[in-house]
Amino acid sequence: MRLKRNKANILQWLFNKYLALVDRTVMIVWQEENIYGDSQIFGFWHEDSFFMNLVLEKLAHKTTPVDVIVTADTRGNYIENMIKQCGGNALRVPDGYKAYASLKKIVQDTYEKSRSIAVALDGPLGPRHEPKKLAFYLSEHAEEEFVGISLSYSSCLRLTRRWDKYVIPLPFTTVTVAVKNYGIVEKNAVPALPVSAQAPDRGGACKQSEESLKGVL
């Protein structure tokens, strides 16, 4: 048990250090179609979860503080740790039917319009690029605008054996961040959402990688 805990602590330390390295060396190109100020519902693809920590940290300076919905199981521990490093707050929600009570409280809290919420649209376990209705349910019932965020990378590693093809950006990467406001979206009228941003032609591409972190990320 102690060995397992030490391993988890080492992995969290590595994730945090690498995230800090990316933060210092990356260049972000913003493509924004959104007016900030009030609380909003932010949606992104699960494969972009790593870099979204930095995106949400920067968006928090433009809008209300951002809470990120994260799975309550062990996988969420690493995610919550990185979210906290970036000054955010994680809302731990169980998978499946156990999520009802937690989601009910989140919906009630959004009525106060004091905080924004971010959620991986196809999380926690896919299918990839098939948005679930949670973000749009929150948008509809709390009457909050839904804002879609899509990313593209000039250079990165992509873990191809994971269901989401998880992306780890490399240092000195250019990341294009497209932010688009869709207004209040009903859960039964989900718009077509881009799977990546339209990046300027800067060369480079994500490299395919064997999944060496299966069961961790």
From TrEMBL:
Compositional bias segments (type: Basic and acidic residues): 208-217
Organism encoding this protein: Candidatus Mediterraneibacter pullicola
Annotated stretches, region: Disordered: 198-217
Name of this protein: DUF374 domain-containing protein
